[in-house]
Write a structure and sequence with these properties.
Elements: H1 14-23, E1 25-27, E2 30-35, E3 38-43, H2 44-51, H3 58-62, H4 70-77
Antiparallel strand pairs: 1-2, 2-3
């Protein structure tokens, strides 16, 4: 998987990923960052659409207080 981040033909690289994480912030479910001067902003639904994956329950998975879910449900989600 590390090769994905260094393969420039896929238009992603380790330095870009490092820059993304160095500048990332999450506010009210929206992720923002800046890479190479380009502002990036997305929420769970947008990211799910881009990746083609369902996002049902994602808001419960990433919430700070996970006690509501219980240990069994957390294992299911993971």
């Amino acid at each position: 998987m590390a090769g994905v981040f260094t393969n420039t033909q896929l238009e992603s690289s380790q330095p870009d990923l490092a820059e993304f994480y160095a500048r990332v912030s999450v506010t009210e479910g929206t992720v923002t960052s800046m890479v190479n001067g380009v502002q990036i902003e997305f929420d769970a639904q947008t990211l799910g659409d881009i990746l083609g994956v369902p996002v049902v329950g994602f808001d419960l998975y990433v919430r700070e207080d996970k006690s509501l879910l219980g240990k069994a449900k957390l294992l299911d989600l993971a």
